[in-house]
Specification:
The chain has three domains: about 45 residues, no CATH class; about 80 residues, Pseudouridine synthase (2-Layer Sandwich); about 110 residues, Pseudouridine synthase (2-Layer Sandwich). Helix content is about 20%, strand content about 25%. The longest helix is centred in the middle third of the chain and has 12 residues.
């Protein structure tokens, strides 16, 4: 196996990122990326510190559900990245928030993540809360850490799950593919998802389910639903359409997942704030087509 491929299997970085480490002298002994590794070799990789670029404000329309001096709650559209990163330097929620809020966003999240307390995937739609000052950031982060935040998602999955159930299993990096998350037998972080069947679709080939999170791990719902044989429609990372799947499901362009409900204690007043938002048009149309 080539050195760059071997290291990309061992570490949570892409092959191109590993190649840049090798090229810039961060891997020792210094060898070419295409050098074939052999058993017994030991390599040291010095991970360079990330240089955070300062995001620029961009006038991007936001669907604001609530705002005060401490926080802002938005309904994120599918396709919007939460914060800048590799491949998405601009056009993110952070860019939009900088234009909307100016310098009032909390700095705790760092240069690339001002005000960001939690996140949802690029292709997932739904509710997010953002802190506008450090006090709010700290108090909201504490609620997420102790799992007191109430979060409910709606998802369209392949097949017909049981009426309700609970999926438990530690989630960590997949040992087979470091770019994916998986339920792991050792390590990882505890994760619990409660699900409930809401509607049968496409003659039992798909279903609308409600997922309530006790924890908030990366890709938790996608991983947990796949683990019980019901991957999300449109999720090209964790599930393939079963045989006989209608084309309308097979070609849905994103994972059919929506953060529908978010409730938490206001960081200043302690009052419970609860927000809900209906399914976006693409998921609503997919459900309507499957009801006949």
């Amino acid at each position: 196996m080539r050195l760059d491929k071997f290291l990309s299997v061992c570490l949570p970085f892409s092959r191109s990122r590993i190649a840049s480490f090798i090229e810039n002298g961060h891997v020792s002994p210094a060898l070419a990326a295409d050098t074939k590794v052999v058993p017994g070799q030991i390599f040291t990789v010095h991970i360079p510190e990330a240089v955070e670029a300062t995001p620029r404000p961009q006038e991007i329309q936001l669907n604001i559900l609530y705002e005060d001096d401490d926080l802002i709650v938005i309904d994120k559209s599918a396709g919007m990245v939460v914060h800048p990163g590799a491949g998405n330097p601009e056009g993110t929620l952070v860019n939009a928030l900088l234009a909307h809020c100016g310098d009032s966003l909390s700095g705790i999240g760092g240069v690339k993540r001002p005000g960001i307390v939690h996140r949802i995937d690029k292709e997932t739609s739904g509710i997010l809360v953002i802190a506008k000052n450090d006090m709010a950031h700290q108090k909201l982060s504490e609620q997420f850490a102790c799992h007191s935040i109430h979060r409910v998602y709606q998802a369209i999955v392949y097949g017909l799950p049981q009426t309700e159930g609970t999926v438990e299993g530690n989630i960590g990096r997949s040992p087979r593919n470091r770019q994916k998350m998986a339920i792991v037998s050792t390590g990882g972080k505890p994760a619990v998802t409660h699900y409930r069947l809401l509607k049968t679709l496409y003659q039992r080939r798909a279903a609308l389910v409600e997922c309530r999170l006790e924890t908030g791990r990366t890709h938790q719902i996608r991983v947990h639903m796949t683990s019980i044989g019901h991957p999300l429609v449109g999720d090209k990372t964790y599930g393939n359409p079963p045989k006989g799947t209608p084309d309308i499901l097979r070609h849905f362009p994103r994972q059919a997942l929506h953060a529908a409900v978010l409730a938490f204690a206001h960081p200043r007043t302690g009052k419970t704030l609860s927000f809900s938002t209906p399914l976006p048009q693409d998921m609503a149309l997919l459900i309507k087509s499957g009801e006949t």
